[in-house]
Design goal:
This protein is 10% helix and 30% strand. By secondary structure, the protein is mainly beta. It binds copper (II) ion. This is AA9 family lytic polysaccharide monooxygenase.
């Protein structure tokens, strides 16, 4: 006998099979950089669901940076990521309102150029996360993304060394996450060059590697009036 929550979730899944999304725009200190510019664009808007797959790094097919330009930014700038279901900014929810969960941002410094960087191993630093914002009603970071035209922002820590980086933004949708695989990982990687910076050596994790199927923030029933939610991965490093 399925629980009501499971039945509801099954209905949601059927309804939202095509309601997926991709990262499509970067904004540098409030300036729109244009559709798909500086972004390693995935072949479609499907999520990744295997947390052990290299698809978790920068989306599917070992996305290469060949042919992708790199955006010059200053450390301390505010970068905004903008996500949509399809190549349209209006006419539908940016990321489909049934997709509830956390929003995270990581970055990794390239040994040389961002375009040639294949970010394997412990190279990723988490610089932002937002999860369950209010308990009653249950409000998620994804609700804010939907309410703000698909956008969320992060400040690039000033103490990061100058050089080329991949920015990895991630939205985890938990509407069918009560079993594994179920949680949907939406990943966008962008190429930036920090033109001025500091000397920090932040903590780093591997992606895949930082998440486990059994993490309480990955296999979770969000229709259970959660009192708290544990965002997967390491602590945020703020510089
Ligand atoms: Cu979806």
């Amino acid at each position: 006998m399925k629980t009501l929550a499971a039945l509801l979730a099954t209905a949601l899944l059927a309804q939202q099979t095509l309601a997926h999304f991709t990262m499509q725009y970067l904004w540098d200190n409030g300036v729109d950089q244009g559709l798909n510019n500086y972004i390693r664009v995935p072949p479609n808007n499907n999520p990744v669901t295997d947390v052990t797959s290299t698809d978790l790094t920068c989306n599917v097919n070992d996305l290469s940076g060949a042919g992708v330009s790199t955006l010059s930014i200053a450390a301390g700038t505010t970068i905004t990521f903008e996500w949509h279901q399809h190549a349209q900014r209006t006419g539908e929810d940016p990321i489909a309102s049934g997709h509830k969960g956390p929003v995270l941002v990581y970055l990794a410094k390239a040994p040389s150029t961002a375009a040639t960087f294949s970010p394997a191993g412990a190279v990723w630093t988490k610089i932002y996360q937002s999860g369950l914002l209010t308990v009653t009603p249950q409000t998620w970071a994804t609700d804010v993304v939907n309410a703000t035209g698909g956008k969320h922002s992060v400040t690039i820590p000033k103490s990061l060394p100058a050089g080329e980086y991949l920015l990895r933004a991630e939205i985890i949708a938990l509407h069918v996450a009560f079993t594994y695989p179920g949680a949907q990982f939406y990943i966008g990687c962008a190429q930036v060059k920090i033109t001025s910076g500091g000397t920090a050596n932040p903590p780093k994790v591997a992606i895949p590697g930082a998440y486990k199927p059994t993490d309480p923030g990955i296999t979770v029933n969000i229709y259970n009036n959660l009192l708290n939610y544990t965002i997967p991965g390491p602590a945020v490093w703020t510089g």
